[in-house]
Amino acid sequence: MSSLRILVGCKRVIDYAVKIRVNAGQTAVETAGVKQSMNPFDEIAVEEAVRLRERATKDSANHPKVEEIVAVSCGPTKAQETLRTALAMGADRAIHVQVDEKTTLEPLAVAKLFKALAEKEKTNLVILGKQAIDDDAGQTGQMLAGLLQWPQATFASKLDIDAKDGSGLQMKVAREIDGGLETLSATLPAVVTTDLRLNEPRYASLPNIMKAKRKSMAKMTPQDLGVDITPRLETLKVTEPPKRQGGKKVESVDELIDKLRNEAKAL
Hints:
Layout (H helix, E strand, L loop, with lengths): L3 E6 L2 E3 L21 E3 L1 H19 L7 E10 L3 H11 L3 E6 L8 H14 L4 E5 L10 H9 L3 E11 L7 E8 L2 E8 L2 E5 L11 H7 L4 E4 L32 H10 L5
Parallel strand pairs: 1-4, 1-6, 4-5, 5-11, 6-10, 7-10
Antiparallel strand pairs: 2-3, 7-8, 8-9
């Protein structure tokens, strides 16, 4: 049975519980002194990679062996903290693609970096979060699949991989759509992006956190991978959304219609 070599993305973002503030220059959100952690959808991606290994351990006849799980983060030096979390969750080793803290990595640049790493690592499955909660772009997985010319399954809520029919590793992915569930099938290599209901990430135990410190973490730059990360977009201004105004009580339906027509201009 063929084995899996999994590449999983781990982006460092402002923690989901932090109240976001725009910086004084209105060029971005404030990050100084702000708690940051792994993107929640990327935590789900790491968890799914580890679960694929656990399924193979319990039932090797129906699930392919996971040869290696490699966690990747592209960002400043502090991104190594995020990678250590992934290692503590169960990834085997990590790769840190280091960029300057002031550099903004756009989805296309990240996709190109992952393409280079997928080819270098001879990966046959890339699992990414469906989006990062800082830019909410939701583009990297799709761009990566296009660059690699691999099949893709986005917004996965269930993932199964087997090789029982002898035609290579096959995956089935369930994804939630407006009308219910859609099930896709594809032959690996492939790209999968994770949705919220795929799993619930585990907490890293203290022993695993200590073990993670001894696991390998390679460091490289975009130049090492031959990738140009020059931004193609320019952010002109970042502002907070307008504050919501308080509601008003009306005495009757006629008064409501009158206000909607004459004040709100909604009718």
